[in-house]
Amino acid sequence: MAGGGCFQSRRGTRAMALMATAMILASCGQAFLSACPQLRSRAGTGNLAGSTGPSARPSHLQPSQVSMAAGEEISMVVGISGLWAQLALALLPTLFIELLVEGEKARPRTRDYVLNSEDQISIQIPFQIGNWEAARQNPDRVWNALCGLLDSSLLRRLQGSLFVLNAASTFVLFYTMILVPQGYPLISLQTLPFTLSSFALGLLLAYRANQATLRYIKARDIWGDMLNISRDLTQMSSQWARYEDFVDFARWVPAFTTCLMCALRNPEAHDLAQELREAAGSDLSKKGAGAGLSEEEIQLIVNRPKGMLAHHYVTHILRTKIKLMDLPLEQRALMENNITRLINDCGACENIFATPIPVAYSKHTTTFLYLWLFFLPWALEGSLGVGVVFAQQLLSFFLLGIEDIGVQIEQPFDVLPLKKICFKISNEGQIVRSNFASLEEAARVSRKAGVKQADPVPA
């Protein structure tokens, strides 16, 4: 049902765009007729006289007069055709973007996307060696970046805004070329206000993008820290606790990050119980030490005390299990310290999630940017002519793109590959639990080999 609603919404948007384009063209046609009364009257006279073309002339006109009248009429028709061509050219960016967007929609989806984004906001993929080699390869990286603009989801997100701005610049051309010759006042803005305000606009956009990037980097570092803590807790319990306690404790470690991921994203994006089942590791069919949480334990998390967050419940369980291990005080303190670090990271994530960039600042920046781009054609039309449309569309794409990217990464937990991080934690834990005996044996064999190769102790 949701997918059908999204499809109907997109279809409605395109229909509105086509209707608006038709209205603009209809207005242009009416203006052409009102701007050319002589041509309209000549056409009407010819029809009344039964004439079928411009060759029907009054019989009393001299040949030279007939030639001049025909030349004026041809010039008028050519001028009107030129205006039509320029206005059609002004709407070309909207049609071009529509074609690119339809092509981008037809591409197969190979990445994960944020829920309810209509596949417009992709989740960042973890880079591997091949990704880094491609990212720094010259000059391919430049061509890939330029060609990527043609099938980027950024165009889909900006399509509506670019259409409105395209319509605004087309109206400026329509007003200047058609209405002004009919006696309407000429409206023209100086470029100086736009030049002076561009510095302020650039600072606003740069600051907003920088702050969003800092939030993204901080969230990434926090989740990297939780990955390392989870590894540390698994290894500590494997070496210090009894085998049964280690397996029981290590099965609960991935549950913390899994519950936190679900809390930081749209509840519809993840089913907590299913995510906890998948937190067992890469092989969900394993039994014994390689298995994850039991169904009863999963239901304990799902049906936790009212008002208690799932990840807070898991940290409480982990602390209790550490206490029941009966570890020496120093070892218990080290493990308790890791739990404290997890809680600190959890609080930092909740702080980022609940506190956006000041809303007033974001609204002011967006309003400033849109009005700046909306009125820009009135200042550039006199010097660029029909080229003002393409100049405005190019500026709008890059400036609105900067603003939109900042908006998308401001809430970093939707675009960070948290699912991949949780999988890495659960998979590494499952490997350690399943292969604990072989890992211990390998350490003992290595120790014996090292003792044999060591130099004899001097007497």
Task: Indicate the topology.
Layout: H1 2-35, H2 37-48, H3 63-90, H4 92-106, H5 129-135, H6 140-148, H7 153-179, H8 192-240, H9 243-264, H10 272-278, H11 295-302, H12 310-324, H13 329-354, H14 359-384, H15 387-410, H16 418-434, H17 436-453
Helix pairs in contact: 1-7, 4-7, 7-14, 7-15, 8-9, 8-13, 8-14, 8-15, 8-16, 9-12, 9-16, 10-11, 12-13, 14-15
Can you describe this structure?
- By secondary structure, this protein is mainly alpha-helical.
- It has 17 helices and no strands.
- It has helices at residues 2-35, 37-48, 63-90, 92-106, 129-135, 140-148, 153-179, 192-240, 243-264, 272-278, 295-302, 310-324, 329-354, 359-384, 387-410, 418-434, 436-453.
- Helix 8 (192-240) runs parallel beside helix 15 and helix 8 packs parallel to helix 16 (418-434).
- The longest helix is centred in the middle third of the chain and has 49 residues, at 192-240.
- It is elongated and about 95 Å long.
- The model is unreliable at 1-11, 25-59, 65-71 and 73-79 (pLDDT under 50).
